[in-house]
């Protein structure tokens, strides 16, 4: 008998199951884009056939990091910038869990940048949602790695001299096998993209534009977005790395000019996930490691058997 | 200094095969029935640079490297083969000989490779004169020529071992067996030829006027030769650890490597990751998902782990970290031991953060306390740290094989099954009360993601019983008190259920004490025995439990002596400070013997420190140690 019976449980799931029955109610500001992510996730998870107890959401710190306080799955609200290493290991320990990591642009692209690049490089099988509001929200409005050049904040009063980071291109170059951008103001697209990301076998990175009306009043996420898949103006093959890269560049360029393009930019269904690669080289067991501890018949090798080489 | 012991030093350049040759020779000595202990000295360079390994072998137990040595095999020319422009020392070829003479005992033996070092260079060294003064017996042998004649030049190690065996009147059987295990075919043939040739020529060519011969011994049971790093890795395996994440840093790399090499066969997972923050965070993630996990580093990397360490404490995620100390501050001396990260390990991480810290004193304890660290960490859902150092990490000694013959313990401690979760407390929303206030001994059992009925949120923020962020004052106090309660419960359990993890030596009734911790234990143990032989009245205590501190045991020990000297490898008397802080007294009773020059204590230094410090002999100690008087002295 499995020790993790919630995993693979097939039943009709009401999306309300993902809403905490009692407290806490979200403490986000009215109009905050973070509500959009929460809502899209609550819709996507049941549509992807997931029950609350087989999902582990791992978040960082920031307004965004509170996502799993308001979403009733197993959750781990970690520390600033470290959601990915925690999430990655949980997935290695029990690959049958549905692992979703989330955090803000400061959290994920700033302090956690190193982890992001390496998780993408290794193509860990998980979904990573970055709430990109181009600002530090929780610490009250400082400039973030995605804030536009010239952005004024209390810590860069003369306007930031830094060019913003390009999250889509970075992720692609680092090795992510699914890269998309969506926006809180587009709930249907957001839900679809999250669902695809969950179903994708590999590192699925969603740059999720979330407006922060409190600290980033001129944020460009307010302007109408364009879905690159729906629009006749854009024609590129999402499975083609080069075309995807070009489209990402253009998207990132025009965002600075005030045009918001969203959609899927790169989907590589052929690249094996890290978990598969690791199994292929014999560095990871076929069965979930975590199960072993509950298996009375498991043979636990002991060091005694290794001593021969020391005698 | 005992006459019936061999301390064989093989010296050369890094990359000359000093390591493998000495490993095999140590094993041969062990198989011949002797107790062995190895000490490795190497610079932070990959090739070249002077390096040596010492093997101490005796019929009696050996706990440390000993004092000085009595057989030098000066070998190797990797620096001579790769001469660097403006190499920073004088004559590289002569170094294995010249660098090592100061510690060679009277009556000792020197074998050097005449094929590499010419007579003129030796003349510069005044070897003849020094040999006469110290009654050394010098054997110049053309090891290179011998190796070339029967095989390849690199096999001059084997020639050196052959000469050693002849001079010490040793049987070649064990050496031959070990060679046969390690190689085959032509290479084996060539090596065997070289070994025999070296043995025979030496026996025929020289009159043996030296007294030194290989000691004889006899083990009742089978022995294994292994390092502290092996012991920690094996302790982890037997504790059911199957996940390790790390980033290389000397000397922690050894444990990381050993587990990475063994885990694939055991269904375990090893991850080399981008940095140490990630490494410890991965261990937290794997543990959260239900696998016994560990990580570790040396000081600099451990600094980065401070964040995930605190996270593990706040989320009550079981975790084992190892911290292998080397000399600091900062990058310090990467290949030199020191015991100067104690305060760092005790207090790192913000807030009233709590952890368990064990400091094993030898190889057996390293195994034992690693097992214990996992057990405590999972039973109490608290991070446990094993602090040790470059010395214990790299030294090898023989351990009775039976010692390791115990069952694995893959138990996940205070983790509920789905059956048990049905009975457990849930709140109105159906969430499991994973952090309920009334946990026994401060522990509230946990569930694992994927289990039915166990949903909760783990967070590094202060939280309510189901894990929601919560700043209510009553909840805060309840949660904090519960987390703190664990430490007391652990102390009680360690005192009641385990034989003490502290190590005592000497006579219970002795008047004076020597207190130490970690890898200095062996040298102190030997020193205490010697002091008592000399008529002093001394006993020793080596403390392993750094946190929670064994207050009763240490208090009893200190109350029973007139004065005590604390021996540790650092410049600021960190352990002595820790004792005083934990016990709130004894400031006037404790003096310190400190060493921080990059080399571990030798027993004679501890003896000398005691004589000067406690027995009040009117002289300065000669060795590179420092004495720190008692408070108010
Ligand atoms: C190590 C560390 N540094 C700094 C902080 C303070 N901090 C909390 S949230 C935050 C910024 C979060 O910004 P972002 O990730 O963009 O998230 P948002 O609040 O905008 O959703 C910072 C700097 C912290 N908690 N930990
Ligand atoms: S500060 Fe900004 S990001 Fe944070 S909750 Fe308010 S609107 Fe949202």
Structure description:
The complex is a heterodimer of chains A (311) and B (633). By secondary structure, chain A is α/β, with parallel strands linked by helices. Chain A has one domain: Thiamin diphosphate (ThDP)-binding fold, Pyr/PP domains (Rossmann fold). Chain A is built from nine helices and eight strands. Chain A has helices at residues 34-47, 83-93, 105-111, 113-122, 167-174, 187-199, 241-257, 274-280, 289-292, and strands spanning 55-59, 74-77, 98-104, 126-132, 178-183, 203-209, 225-227, 260-267. In chain A, strands 2-1-3-4-6-5-8-7 form an eight-stranded mixed beta sheet, with helices on both faces. The longest helix of chain A is centred in the C-terminal third of the chain and has 17 residues, at 241-257. The radius of gyration of chain A is 20 Å and the shape is globular. The model of chain A has no long low-confidence stretch (mean pLDDT 95). Chain B has 633 residues and is an alpha/beta fold. Chain B folds into four domains: 5-205, Pyruvate-ferredoxin oxidoreductase, PFOR, domain III (Pyruvate-ferredoxin Oxidoreductase, domain 3, 3-Layer(aba) Sandwich); 225-404, 3-Layer(aba) Sandwich (Rossmann fold); 418-497, no CATH class; 503-628, Rossmann fold, CATH 3.40.50.920. Chain B is built from 23 helices and 22 strands. Chain B starts with a strand and ends in a 5-residue tail after the last strand. The model of chain B is unreliable at 85-89 (pLDDT under 50). Chains A and B meet through strand 2, helix 2, helix 4 and helix 9 of A and strand 7, helix 10, helix 11, strand 9 and helix 12 of B. Strand 2 of chain A pairs parallel with strand 15 of chain B. Residues 28-29, 32, 34, 63, 133, 137-138, 212-215 of chain A line the site of iron/sulfur cluster (SF4).
């Amino acid at each position: 008998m499995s020790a993790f019976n919630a995993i693979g449980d097939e039943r009709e799931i009401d999306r309300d199951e993902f809403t905490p029955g009692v407290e806490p109610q979200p403490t986000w500001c009215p109009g905050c884009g973070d509500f959009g992510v929460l809502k899209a996730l609550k819709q996507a998870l049941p549509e992807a056939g997931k029950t609350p107890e087989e999902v582990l959401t791992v978040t960082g710190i920031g307004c965004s990091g509170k996502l799993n306080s308001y979403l009733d799955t197993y959750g781990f609200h970690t520390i600033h910038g470290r959601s990915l290493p925690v999430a990655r290991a949980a997935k290695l320990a029990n690959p049958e869990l549905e692992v979703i990591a989330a955090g803000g642009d400061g959290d994920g692209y700033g302090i956690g940048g190193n982890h992001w690049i390496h998780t993408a490089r290794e193509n860990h099988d998980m979904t990573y949602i970055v709430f990109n509001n181009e600002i530090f929200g929780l610490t009250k409005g400082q400039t973030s790695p995605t804030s536009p050049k010239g952005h004024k904040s209390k810590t860069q009063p003369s306007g930031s001299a830094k060019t913003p980071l390009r999250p889509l291109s970075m992720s692609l170059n680092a090795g992510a096998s699914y890269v998309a951008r969506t926006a809180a103001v587009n709930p249907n697209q957001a839900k679809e993209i999250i669902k695809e990301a969950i179903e994708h076998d590999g590192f699925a990175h969603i740059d999720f534009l979330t407006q922060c009306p409190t600290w980033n009043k001129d944020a460009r996420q307010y302007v109408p977005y364009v879905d690159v898949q729906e629009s006749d103006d854009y024609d590129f093959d999402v499975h083609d790395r080069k075309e995807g890269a070009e489209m990402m560049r253009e998207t990132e360029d025009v965002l600075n000019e005030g045009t918001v393009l969203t959609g899927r930019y790169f989907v590589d269904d052929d690249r094996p996930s890290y978990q598969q690669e690791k199994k292929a080289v014999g560095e990871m067991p076929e069965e979930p490691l975590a199960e072993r501890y509950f298996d009375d018949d498991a043979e636990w090798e002991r060091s005694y058997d290794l001593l021969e080489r020391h005698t | 200094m005992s006459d019936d012991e061999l301390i064989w030093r093989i010296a050369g350049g890094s990359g000359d095969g000093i390591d493998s040759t000495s490993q095999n020779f140590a094993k041969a000595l062990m198989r011949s029935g002797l107790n062995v202990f190895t000490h490795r000295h190497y610079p932070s360079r990959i090739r070249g640079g002077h390096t040596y390994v010492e093997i101490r072998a005796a019929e009696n137990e050996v706990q440390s490297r000993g004092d000085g040595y009595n057989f030098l095999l000066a070998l190797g020319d990797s620096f001579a083969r790769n001469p660097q422009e403006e190499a920073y020392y004088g004559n590289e070829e002569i170094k294995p000989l010249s660098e090592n003479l100061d510690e060679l005992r009277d009556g000792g033996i020197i074998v050097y490779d005449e094929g590499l070092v010419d007579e003129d260079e030796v003349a510069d060294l005044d070897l003849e004169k020094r040999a006469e003064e110290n009654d050394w017996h010098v054997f110049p042998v053309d090891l290179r020529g011998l190796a070339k004649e029967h095989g390849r030049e690199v096999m001059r190690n084997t020639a050196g071992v052959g000469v050693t065996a002849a001079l010490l009147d040793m049987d070649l059987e064990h050496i031959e067996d070990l060679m046969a295990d390690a190689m085959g075919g032509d290479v084996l043939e060539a090596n065997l030829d070289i070994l025999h040739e070296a043995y025979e020529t030496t026996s025929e060519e020289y009159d043996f006027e030296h007294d030194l011969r290989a000691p004889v011994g006899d083990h009742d049971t089978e022995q294994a030769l292994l390092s502290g790093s092996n012991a920690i890795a094996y302790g982890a395996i037997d504790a059911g650890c199957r996940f390790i994440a790390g980033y290389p840093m000397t000397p922690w790399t050894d444990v990381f490597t050993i587990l990475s090499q063994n885990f694939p066969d055991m269904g375990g997972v090893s991850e080399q990751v981008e940095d140490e923050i990630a490494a410890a965070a991965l261990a937290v993630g794997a543990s959260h998902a239900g696998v016994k996990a560990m990580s570790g580093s040396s000081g600099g990397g451990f600094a980065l782990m401070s964040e995930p360490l605190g996270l593990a404490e706040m989320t009550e995620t079981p975790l084992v970290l190892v911290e292998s100390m080397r000399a600091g501050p900062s990058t310090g001396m990467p290949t030199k031991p020191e015991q100067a990260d104690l305060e760092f390990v005790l207090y790192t991480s913000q807030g009233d953060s709590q952890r368990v810290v064990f400091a094993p004193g030898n190889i057996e304890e390293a195994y034992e306390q690693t097992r214990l660290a996992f057990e405590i960490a999972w039973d109490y859902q608290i991070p446990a740290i094993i602090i040790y150092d470059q010395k214990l990490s790299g030294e090898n000694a023989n351990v009775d094989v039976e010692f390791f013959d115990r069952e694995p313990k893959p138990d996940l401690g205070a983790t509920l099954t789905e059956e048990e979760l049905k009975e457990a407390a849930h709140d109105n929303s159906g969430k499991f009360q994973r952090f309920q206030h009334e946990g026994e001994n401060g522990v509230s059992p946990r569930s694992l993601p994927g289990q039915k009925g166990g949903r909760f949120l783990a967070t590094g923020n202060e939280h309510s019983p189901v894990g929601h962020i919560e700043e209510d004052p009553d909840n805060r106090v309840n949660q904090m008190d519960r987390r703190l309660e664990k430490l007391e419960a652990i102390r009680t359990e360690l005192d009641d259920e385990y034989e003490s993890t502290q190590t005592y030596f000497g006579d219970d009734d002795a008047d004076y004490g020597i207190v130490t911790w970690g890898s200095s234990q062996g040298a102190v143990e030997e020193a205490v025995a010697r002091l008592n032989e000399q008529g002093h009245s001394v006993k020793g205590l080596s403390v392993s439990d750094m946190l929670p501190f064994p207050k009763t045991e240490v208090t009893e020990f200190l109350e029973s002596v007139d004065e005590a000297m604390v021996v540790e490898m650092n410049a600021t008397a960190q352990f002595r400070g820790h004792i005083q802080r934990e016990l709130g007294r004894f400031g006037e009773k404790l003096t310190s013997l400190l060493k921080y020059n990059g080399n571990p204590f030798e027993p004679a230094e501890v003896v000398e420190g005691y004589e000067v410090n406690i027995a009040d002999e009117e002289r300065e100690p000669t060795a590179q140690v420092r004495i720190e008087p008692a408070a108010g002295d």
